[in-house]
Amino acid sequence: MIGQLTGLLIEQNEADRCIIDVNGVGYVVFTSNRTLARLPRPPEVARVLIETIVREDAILLYGFAESYERDWFRLLTTVQGVGVRMALSILSTLSPDEISTAIMTADKATLTRAPGVGARLAVRILTELSGKVASLSDSIATVVVPEGKDKGSRPQTAQTLSDALLALEGLGFRRVESQPVVAKVIKRLTDEGKGSELDLVIRESLRELAR
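The line above is the sequence of Holliday junction branch migration complex subunit RuvA; the predicted structure tokens follow.
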């Protein structure tokens, strides 16, 4: 199994793949648009993390610029109906933080922005991954349900996030631009021990959005 490739990037397809030359062997690596945008221009040395998919008729390599995106690729492909190409399509449309936030807030509309993801598949992703998001430590979802809350209820952080997004929408901000900002603000405030009160989250988010 191949876990990483470091070599000369000799070709870069704007759609979904690149070719990396490692000691004279050219490896075709399928990637998201996000990873392609972070790679250097050919011909330069590039490093990508690899997820190797072995099939009866082929060995396919999927490359990622960061481990967090690879972790989400692995998680998405556990959902029934989400194959490797669909997972890359989702990651090309939405950042890992946006996917995490959408799942935490049960935001089906955000997931359907990805080509090929209809309402039914979006619901399936929300349902099957809602309990798994917390395993990705870099996500806002690392905030667990406080003691005393029912296990079946959503974390308070997710409710604050959802309420803050609605408030910002009322102020004229598009969800696509405010969602990652609010998620980062909540995570920062939590890490700093300041809590995640709604009014504080909104004020801090407005300050970030105004920059």
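Note on the example: The chain has three domains: 4-64, 67-137, 156-210. The first helix runs from residue 33 to 38.
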